[in-house]
Amino acid sequence: MSDDMLEFGRKVLASQPFSVLLGTELVAFAKGGAELALDLRPEHLQQHGFAHGGVVSYLADNALTYAGGSVLGDSLTLEYKINYLRPAVGRRLVAKARVTGSGKSQAVCHCDVYVLDGEAEKLCATAQGTIWKVG
Amino acid sequence: MSDDMLEFGRKVLASQPFSVLLGTELVAFAKGGAELALDLRPEHLQQHGFAHGGVVSYLADNALTYAGGSVLGDSLTLEYKINYLRPAVGRRLVAKARVTGSGKSQAVCHCDVYVLDGEAEKLCATAQGTIWKVG
Amino acid sequence: MSDDMLEFGRKVLASQPFSVLLGTELVAFAKGGAELALDLRPEHLQQHGFAHGGVVSYLADNALTYAGGSVLGDSLTLEYKINYLRPAVGRRLVAKARVTGSGKSQAVCHCDVYVLDGEAEKLCATAQGTIWKVG
Amino acid sequence: MSDDMLEFGRKVLASQPFSVLLGTELVAFAKGGAELALDLRPEHLQQHGFAHGGVVSYLADNALTYAGGSVLGDSLTLEYKINYLRPAVGRRLVAKARVTGSGKSQAVCHCDVYVLDGEAEKLCATAQGTIWKVG
Predict the structure, then answer these.
(1) Subunits with at least 3 CB pairs below 8 A relative to chain D?
(2) Domain span at residue C102?
(3) Residue A121: CA atoms inside 13 Å, Cβ hemisphere, count?
(4) Rounded CA gap, A10 and C52, in Å?
(5) How far apart are CA C112 and CA C59, in angstroms?
(6) pLDDT, tens digit, for every residue of D80-115?
(7) Domain harbouring B73, CATH code
(8) Tens-digit pLDDT profile for residues C97-117
(9) Which chain D residues contact residue B81 at CB under 8 A?
(10) pTM for the complete prediction?
(11) Total domain count for chain D?
(12) Given CA atoms C86, C87, C93, C99 in this order, what sign does their dihedral have?
């Protein structure tokens, strides 16, 4: 069942041209949470060689939507807030999102974004948002 | 002087590989505000044919940083919050950011993101964030 | 009609024991916006003699709800974010909220909170939130 | 050492007239986290008999500041965002805050607010904010 969810989630991701452009992968997707990741490439960076904030927040936003969608079904991000904690320097970004609370039509979710560099995994951003059931 | 700022701001933007990837333009940049825009391309979309939320929030985040930087100098986004108001369907996104209040080391900025479709300009997202002076 | 709204809004405020405890007044209430105010008393302060952040954010939150309610009818604050810009030192707080965008069931609103001291009116906080129609 | 922190934190709380007005208690205070609580009284409510959102967000805001202060020393809330998850109906509110990440001058903290009713403890709000070291 969870494998079906993961397969379904990957199809949705593959149908998002922007996610394909960035090379995003759905690593995990199950009721209550989701994990998205992408390998950092030169075109993801800003002028100081870090991952651009826009890449970090894209990944957080998308992971929040997946987490909320895991309990709500087809849904979208109504709003979110993100704090950047440190420059995202490394080879890969991983966003881990979870449902903190949910009702019939909305879910409040949190997401932590980590940057991987060698063996180390460092928290580089944290986000909180509201996911809304479509229709 | 403002022309110098605009020229300088465009150089910074051109040095951000992610902004180059997305085709972002700096339309206006002067003390207290900034305007960024990009023409929507197929690779900016999500599965329903709208601009991906990640594109909208990237543009808002970057415009907030420019607005804050216009009064603080070299700076970065510490955190921001964005509300999506309607699907971004159209041919061009425009993000207009302004400084709401600032001190020596931080500025609080707001940004409205519009989608242009034909003659109409529609508000599709609004953001509030904290910009931090570097160093 | 707007006078009826104001009168109605004041009845609602008078039925909130917490607002009565704090001495909040509804100064203006019309389609698209609301203004709440309170005279600062010693019991509103924190340890440095400023208005407690909790008083400032209470006023912002409540003004956001009134603004949203002016277009949605009976409603509540789903979430909001507030930035404190300067210590609230003065004799009176005024929160001015407006609807930035709205649909059938939600409104996104902004609110600026000012502190009055003598003749001067200074911006001390700014907030953005989502208001949700009840029922 | 942690007992000294708790004692110190309680003195700070007792010097906040607004916290005294609301009857807030500092339940726990140690490096990395803080817990604040208050017994709900009739004057804390809004028109539907729930704790007023202003009381819930006051408690979250204050707990975030304590959590950040536990690693930064004297500090204040720069900004925060709160999602209300359910009406706060019960006899007591408890806000549990923790440091998610921190640097020399700022800490990013999260806080969950629970309402206690009989034996049950229910999550009624969740918040994320930036705490700033003073001076």
Answers:
(1) A, B, C
(2) 2-133
(3) 8
(4) 48
(5) 10
(6) 999 999 999 999 999 999 999 999 999 999 999 999
(7) 3.10.129.10
(8) 999 999 999 999 999 999 998
(9) 81
(10) 0.97
(11) 1
(12) positive
